[in-house]
Amino acid sequence: MKLEGSCHCRAVTFTLNSPHPYPFNYCFCSICRKTMGATGAAINLSGDAKSLEVTGADNMAIYHARIRNEETGDEEISPAKRYFCRLCSSGLWLFDSRWPDLIHPFASAIDTELPRAPEKTYLMVESKKDWVPLEPHGNDKVFDEFPDYSIAEWHQRLGLES
User: Fold this and answer.
1) What is the pLDDT of residues 1-27, one digit of tens each?
2) Which residues sit opposite 91 in a β-bridge?
3) Which of the two ends of the chain, N or C, has the fewest CB atoms closer than 10 A to its terminal CB?
């Protein structure tokens, strides 16, 4: 599926192809919560990095999240690059050189109508703040940390690859 996306002020627009366009992963980690909005609940899709076309790239900036070990207090810098618009602060996508073929656009930046997921995965629930509601239904899955399957594996399991 071809995805079209943009930041809020439209200074950055982009397109890419996604074989995995169903938004199903709701992440509640502190990184998603603090960089993407009040509850967290950032939803990453998966796209083909080679197909990414960007207009307005000079309006982008990159953030490398700081990952803190709560037990030791140590901090490390994530190799993943979180791209955002430097004018309006909208999150655009995540790229991690450990998986160079993939771009993970944030569903919130996608302008194309996305298909509705038949089930959801709530992850990093251990980091969710108490004031954030969590109401899984039906076959939804809930994980304190990361699930043991990828975006691609979730789409394959449900026969949803495009």
Assistant:
1) 999 999 999 999 999 999 999 999 999
2) 84
3) C
